[in-house]
């Protein structure tokens, strides 16, 4: 039993924001926070995994990434593309010639992310991996990514109530460890909204919307290179449950680049580096 001051100043109760990667989201109050369960929701191929990966890489915080939906080689292509600006197809060409070609870059800029590639983890597996991380590194990860909820196995055996049970356990993990737990999930494809606009909160599949402190609904328009992000739930800032108030980021899925829509962001998203060798771009 604690008084409020004791609770507020305890380490694992902090809601301190993690580093902001996109100023456009910060200006709307969309900030990932310690000890909080957050959710990114969108249609298939809407950029959920790319957004989570780019955030984990650019934030630079110690991260435990459960990549249940994506295999190691695909994540390597994406990670190298995100770090270098090289298109994923070109990354694959370099790796076909030399499988260790990007090892120096990954060691230098990607080592803060630790990966779990179990294709169907249950909550016990997730908790054990978080505990193992603490044993190895002497602290909990600052960010835990679950990609995605549909791949997680529930003891209930029923999909939708199972998602609710998994979310409850992930909420517990966030509160217990002080980590920001970021889960990804799908929206219903039976839409009564525009495909290139963020879906309303009611479109989230299962019972995943009750516990997160922040839910970001996203939609990608690859033709215009736009990623629209709406906070359809946000305990720490503005939100619109119908998804009509959103920030617009720039995105290049082929090169796994996501940036603000300002001049610097446009420069970051456009094709730049040709290839990487050692510690320098050539």
H/E element sequence: HHEHEHHHEHEHEEEEEHEE
List the strand order in the largest sheet: 3-2-4-5-1-6-7-8-9
Mean pLDDT reading: 89
- Residues in helix, %: 25-40%
Shape: globular
Query: Between the first and last Cα atoms, what is the distance in angstroms?
Result: 58 Å
Q: Overview of this structure, please?
A:
- With 282 residues, this protein is an alpha/beta fold.
- 33% of the residues lie in helices and 21% in strands.
- It is built from 9 helices and 11 strands.
- The chain has helices at residues 4-9, 23-27, 48-59, 72-84, 88-97, 103-109, 123-137, 159-177, 263-269, and strands at 37-42, 63-67, 113-116, 143-147, 180-186, 214-221, 226-234, 246-252, 257-259, 276-277, 280-281.
- Strands 3-2-4-5-1-6-7-8-9 form a 9-stranded mixed β-sheet, sandwiched between helices. Strands 10-11 form a two-stranded antiparallel ribbon.
- The longest helix has 19 residues, at 159-177.
- It is globular.
- The protein starts with a helix and ends with a strand.
- Mean pLDDT is 89; it is low at 272-282.
């Amino acid at each position: 039993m604690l008084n409020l001051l004791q609770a507020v100043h305890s380490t694992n109760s902090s809601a301190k924001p993690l580093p902001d990667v996109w100023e456009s989201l910060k200006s709307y109050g969309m900030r990932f926070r310690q000890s909080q369960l957050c959710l990114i929701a969108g249609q298939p191929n809407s950029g959920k995994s790319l957004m989570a990966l780019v955030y984990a890489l650019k934030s630079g915080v110690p991260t435990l990434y459960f990549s249940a939906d994506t295999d190691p080689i695909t994540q390597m292509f994406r990670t190298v593309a995100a770090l270098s600006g090289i298109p994923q197809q070109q990354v694959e060409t370099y790796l076909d010639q030399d499988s260790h070609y990007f090892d120096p870059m990954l060691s230098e800029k990607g080592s803060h992310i630790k990966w779990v590639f179990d294709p169907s983890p249950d909550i016990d597996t997730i908790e054990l991996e978080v505990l193992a991380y603490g044993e190895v590194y002497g602290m909990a990860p600052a960010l835990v990514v679950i990609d995605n909820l549909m791949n997680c196995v529930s003891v209930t055996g029923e999909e939708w109530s199972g998602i609710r049970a998994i979310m409850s356990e992930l909420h517990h993990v966030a509160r217990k460890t002080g980590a920001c737990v970021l889960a990804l999930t799908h929206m219903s494809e039976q839409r009564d909204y525009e495909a290139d606009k963020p879906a309303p909160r009611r479109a989230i599949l299962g019972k995943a919307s009750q516990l997160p402190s922040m839910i970001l609904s996203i939609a990608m328009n690859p033709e215009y290179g736009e990623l629209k992000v709406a906070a359809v739930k946000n305990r720490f800032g503005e939100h619109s449950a119908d998804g009509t108030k959103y920030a617009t980021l720039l995105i290049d899925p082929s090169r796994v680049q996501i940036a603000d829509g300002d001049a610097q962001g446009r420069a970051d998203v456009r094709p730049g580096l040709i290839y990487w060798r050692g510690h320098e771009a050539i």
